[in-house]
Structures are given as C-alpha cells and as structure tokens.
TrEMBL record:
Keywords: Hydrolase, Metal-binding. One of its GO terms (molecular function) is metal ion binding. It comes from marine sediment metagenome. InterPro entries: Aromatic_Lyase (IPR001106), HutI (IPR005920), L-Aspartase-like (IPR008948), Metal_Hydrolase (IPR032466). GO terms for biological process: L-histidine catabolic process to glutamate and formamide. This is Uncharacterized protein.
Length: 107
C-alpha cells in the first residue's frame, strides 16, 4: 500500500471481505492502512458468504464527512437520489414487503 500510494498508482483500495479471502479483521487493517496513505477504501462484503462484514461497512459509513454525504445525496453526478427514475409507488421498490412490514403495528 505505501508503494502504490507514493507512486500515485491508485486512487482507491479495493478489499474483498469474504470467507477464504480477507476476514473482517484483516479488511479493517487494510482499510486503515489505505486511509493512512490517502487511498479511498472500497469494500466488497458478503457477496458469497455472510461474514458479518455489513457491520464493518456500517461503521465506515459513520466516518463519512458532512461534505461527502452532501455530495453523495446532492445529485453532483447527475444521478437521481437512490438511483431510481421515479419516486412513489412506481419506484420499483418492493411495495408488498414494505406495506406488509407495517401490519404488526397498531396505531
């Protein structure tokens, strides 16, 4: 990582957190090293087996600055929020699951 960063060969550091590749602990060490050297981490987690890597990803989300959150949600790249064309019932979200999830609540 130090050599790649010092020679400007990469902007990102991709880590594949998966059983038999990198554990969540190893992934965290790689992410920390990448950030120390100015590389932006990109984590590929639980694509094949559930390694509880989502917890690691959630902890990293807490480290996003207000500015980066604004850029992510502000449409800087010309993408609609949540990458959907339309909002509401025609958004493509699974309405049956969302509506049935609220059935157990009594108002």
């Amino acid at each position: 990582i130090p050599k790649i960063a010092s020679e400007g060969l990469a902007e990102f550091c991709d880590v594949f957190c998966e059983e038999g590749i990198f554990s969540t602990e190893q992934t965290q060490k790689i992410i920390n090293a990448a950030k120390r050297y100015g590389l932006k981490p990109q984590i590929h987690i639980d694509e094949i087996v559930d390694t509880n890597g989502a917890l690691l990803a959630a902890s990293e989300l807490g480290n996003i600055s207000d500015r980066r959150t604004y850029l992510l949600l502000g449409g800087k790249w010309g993408l609609p929020p949540y990458l959907i064309k339309e909002s509401g019932l025609n958004s493509g979200f699974m309405m049956v699951q969302y509506s049935s999830a609220g059935e157990s609540f009594i108002l």
